[in-house]
Give the backbone structure.
Amino acid sequence: MKLKQVKGINLHRNMKVEELFDEYKKAGAQGTIGLSEAQTIMQEMLQKDVTVFLGIAGPLTASGFRPIIRDMIKKKMVSAVVTSGANIVHDMIEAFGGHHYCGKYDKVDRDLRKKNFGRLGNVLVDFKDFEIFEKKCQEIFSNISEEKRENLSIRELLWEIGYNLDDKDSFLTAAYEEDVPIFSPALVDSMLGLQLFFFSQENTIVLNALKDMKELADMVFKAHQTGAILLGGGVSKHYILGANTLRGGIDYGIQITLDREEGGSQSGAKLEEGISWGKVGTKSRIISLVGDITIIFPLLLAGLKED
């Protein structure tokens, strides 16, 4: 058996990120069997004829990922985005002039409640921004023709919102401008879903999630190869992998999560588990990383080599 020797990681001042990844290849632990392998897979996936699905769980936009998602869409690095409703809401919050603030994990939440702030880990949101959000949502919904509102897919709704936002930094606007579909199968489970419900009490609006499934399935069937970049798990991850059972599973996959597999959850399951369900191909290039997305993913993107 031929073994690869672990060598020391050599660092120097003003080192480029791609140089750091070259050093990771010499290392052990998650350095080589994690970051380095993930970077290699991502590089290959983005250079080949691969339909890439970006899955985003949780509220990463509130943690500073808005420009990352926007740029990935603008640069055509992804063919479609599947995200939680929370990421959409917090993109809209900033598009309407709101902000997210750095707090602490040990903030006293009773005090935050009195001061009208909500907490997402160590990120704080002023409830006043949600008041503006509510008003703007109702205006945008009203701007959509009633004929469209009678049978609207979630993707169509999100493109309508992106069209109506006046913010070049919004990933919803970028998706509309670049014709990149954004799917959000659990959209109703968000503040945007609540606003849709309020609007529906006096107006016609019907969301047809099956139209989204048809559009997603068509993308999967037409693809030469498919890949998934999964930032977290949950519904976003399963929606992408579930659709790819239609073609025998994804060909490339990168997952980053802090969840563990012992509980049997979708979020903690390694991509290898998907092979048994036909969500991941038996010969696929995949890697599952355990760690903080906000630390790992920017490093992976920064470490990509230019064509």
Remarks:
- The chain has a mean pLDDT of 92.
